[in-house]
Amino acid sequence: MRPRFLFLALMALAFRPAVAQVFNPETFSLKNGLQVVVIPNHRVPVVSHMVWYKVGSADEVAGHTGLAHMVEHMMFKGTKTVGPEEFSRIVAANGGQDNAFTNEDYTAFYQNVSADKLELVMKLEADRMANLALKDEAFQNERQVVIEERRMRTENQPEALLQEQMRAALFLDGGYHHPVIGWHQDIDSYKLQDIVDFHKRWYAPNNAILVVSGDITAAKLKPLAEKYYGAIPARPTPVRARPLDPTPVAQRTLEIRDEDVHQPSWTRYYLAPSYHVGETQDGDPLQLLAEIIGGGPISRLYKSLVVDQKLAASVSAEYDPDSLGQSIFAVATTPNPGIEMNALAAAITAQLKDIAEHGVTDAELSRAKNKLRAETVYARDSYHTGAMVFGQVLTTGGKIEDVEAWPQKIAAVTKEQIDAAAKRLLRDEKSVTGLLLPAKPGEATVVSDPNAEGAQGLIGGNVR
Amino acid sequence: MKKALFVTAALLCGTHASALTIEKVVSPSGIEAWLVEDHKNPIIAADFSFAAGAATDPAGKEGLASMVAGLLDEGAGDLDAQAFQSRLEDLAVGMTFSADADNFSGRLKTLTDNRDAAFDLLRLALTKARFDADAVARVRGQMQVGLQQEEQDPQAIAGRAFAAAIFPDHPYGRANTEASLKAISDADLKGWAGGHLSRDRLVVSVVGDITPQQLGALLDGTFAGMPAKAELAPIAEAQVPAKGSLKIIHRPIPQSVVEFGEPGIKRDDPDWYTAYVMNYILGGGSFSSHLMTEVRVKRGLAYGAYTGLEPYRHGAVVAGDVATRNDKVAESLKVVKEELAKMGKADVSVPELAAAKTYLNGAFPLQMDSTTAIAALLSVVQRDHLGIDYFDRRAGLIGKVTAADVRRVSGKLLDPDKLTVVIVGDPKGMAE
Predict the structure, then answer these.
(1) How many residue pairs bridge chain A and chain B with CB atoms within 8 Å of each other?
(2) Which of A173, A437, B66, B367 is most buried (most C-beta within 10 Å)?
(3) Does B287 contact A76 at a Cβ distance shorter than 8 Å?
(4) Which fold has domain B6-223?
(5) Mean pLDDT of B100-116
């Protein structure tokens, strides 16, 4: 009944720790620069065909936020030979499912089809890489669809509004400051020509990665890839800039106090390095730190705040180093009924301070490594997971070998490296704290205004 | 009773590269399971359920079955909650329980190396759950927080109000409240687990790196200690209203969430496959459904507009939803109603019907993404009593549906004047 969610993107992040030795990918490149990754999995005779473009919301310019996501929507609006909406109709009429999603660093399109329909979807996907042909009427309608998407995901949801504002406060400058879906007034303002120009600038074979997983081999795929994608000429694409954010000097706290808020929550974002920008050596240690402090019911924060002190109903810690620019280390908690937010905030900040000062224990480290190791085995099970992992890594500055080496790199992380990374990360001036609080009527500090600048979560991303 | 291991097989999914077959495994003590062996990865996934769900919650104690689900892995046998969870994590075992209206379900995922230990932890959870006061308070608190979170989510508010409106005076229409969660006692929890989770209500599906012999022994080890039978109070058939109604829940938000529905058809109804095809064409999730075309593509009114068949054991609805800006609610609802009416007035075109059948048959194996997903699918087929040969028969059942069938069933099910409608938001020009 509600089939369109961020399901794929979220699933892949949950399974982030996946390795090439697990997937055994085959890879090759076409003469025009298109990189191809094949992840065979022959359990059922189906394939997942994905094309990932190295462009996302962080590549947009001021005043045109959300354009990458808008272009993703317009990719379904026709080419010189395929009419508007025909793409999805053809895929469905051949027993397949298709969709697309946009993030800060990438835009991806996929079709899940029976293996014998692979050639059909390759032909269709290559066609819209090269031959998009758009009409203004379809664009004006689709703009309204995207605005409704923004209302649904963000403006109707106080948590999402708060997270959008927190992201803007955390990233002082650059492309991660604004939400993936874009600010409302920017979505109102694009012209069709902006879409056409953006597509022309970024949607080139040398700026794309073809990932096919499932019942397929590289030997079978290669002639098809050459036939359909190989015919599209390479052309120069812009350099993707992800400069270091200005050094933050002030701890920031944001608050939404609204009568429509019923469950308070406390969320903190720390400006974190990725594998590619900032203190990049902390990328692996911080994954283990997130696991140790908030990775489940025996994590440090759960044990302390939920089980022992009984202040919180939930805690979480999330971190993803696969970002072309800097990343976010997020910690969140919700108070139990009747618990004052101040008491919980004091308790969780004390825990974070303790970790920054005293580090983690050997037992915690060993348990976290063990858990991540097992995840690599489970990750191989799904024919989607590998496709998602390679797409994300390869569009965010990583290489296939990086994925391959991941288990060894995680296994080699020492307690000293985690403690040092925690000390560097858990600093008040690097953080933005967001409080969602109920208010009595008349006390609201933020109201849900359709024209307010509004939001995307930590894990940005919008599905068509 | 001494009984040899009994195995029958049916094809789940065949291909040039491999073929998955479903085997029916019966343990020495008579416990049945469906198994798909797949030894490529050292992983085993089990999906099981008991035919007893939240609809059995006593009035005033809504949330009881769900709270039991939240507590089975919060301490069992000699292990308290933290010890139990530590053991799961050290063994890299995934174990979850949940309750929906009709069923209490569980999932287990383990690496082959830890298979026996994993199933033994499952046995403990199912037969020796502790319900320690500490854990009960924690899970109750978490469920209360979940309720408060729903209160600030327009979709959740609409879902709850719609259930109440479409299932009046029936357990399907009742939901947890702060008061009902508070009213649940330790005795209620233990009583529910002991009195509802019985072998005569059990369905088990297993996929992965395990043989029928190994599974047979584990079935006994895990489930044989549970009660053989449970006598449950009968649940009345739901009387779904068909008189047309509108309820508005006012919230100061920019987009209204609209849910609508009317009496549907049950899974064992002879018209099920016709209704299934009809729903796909009307609003079953594809971008080219009638609702998506008219509401989203042509008019830009909403991100999506969907319908779905919702068959329960004691009632059924056909329902849908659309979310649109407040000043377009009336227009969106008018378009939806027109599309519902059209389905019963004229035959769908030959190409459209053919495309729908191709999609419904072609997309079916796409969901077999992982061992966990395949196990869940097997459990659905078992719960719906479709038979182990269902995977062979399904395409034919869908293939038989004609345009005249779709028109007839649409005329029977889709009456725009009889819709029960719930709106959450600040809709303009609408009044109850």
Answers:
(1) 211
(2) B66
(3) yes
(4) Cytochrome Bc1 Complex; Chain A, domain 1 (3.30.830)
(5) 97
